[in-house]
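Worked example

This section walks through a single chain of length 199. The input is the sequence exactly as stored; nothing has been trimmed or padded.
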Amino acid sequence: MATTRIETMLGDVAVAVNSKDPRYTHLVGKMLVHPFIPSREIRVITDDLLVDMKFGTGAVKITPGHDPNDFECGLRNLLPQINIFNDDGEINDNGGKFKGLKRFDVRNVLTEELKALGLYRGEAPNPMRLGICSKSKDVIEPLIRAQWYVSCKEVAEVLVQKVKSKEMVILPEEHEKTWYQWMGNMRDWCISRQIWWGH
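Given that input, the structure is written out below as C-alpha cells.
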C-alpha cells in the first residue's frame, strides 16, 4: 500500500479495501503482521466509503488516531485508536523501538528500515492538502484528545420543523434541501479547544 505519511504506520490498526475490488476479496478478514510491531495484527477490512479501488493501490492503511478519514472508518468498523505521539511531537511507547524519535525524523528512519527489510517499493509525487498552523507555520498533526461537546440533535429537530411549518423561511427556496441535509446530519458541537503542539 502507499502512504503520504509513513510515520503514521506505527499507529496502523487495519488495511481497508473496496468490497468490489477483485484483487483483494480473498484477503478480507485475514490478519497481517505489522513490520515493526509484530505483536499488533492488522486486519484487512472493507470500507467502500473510504477506498476508491481505482486510486493508488486500492489498499489503504488505517490509522484512526492520526487521520480524520481513518477516524471515521475506525468508528464504522469498531477499530482501536492508537496515538503514537507525545505532546512534544516525539514517538511514544506505542511506536515500539522508535520511541523518542521526532515525527519527521522517524519518517526517514522507517523508510530506511523498510528498504532493509525488502518491503520498500519506491516513491512518487502525490499532491495533497496539508494543514499548516497559522501561528507556528508547522504541519498540523491530527491527534485524538478528550473534548467537550454540546448535543445539537434537539435544536436541529426544532429547526427542521420551523422550516417545514414556514415559521422560518430559507431563501432562496432551493437551499431548503441543503438545510435539511445539514440538519439531518447534525453532529455534536465541539466546544473545547486545545492550543498545545500539533492540535
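What to look for: Strands lie at 14-17, 31-33, 41-46, 59-62, 149-150, 189-190.
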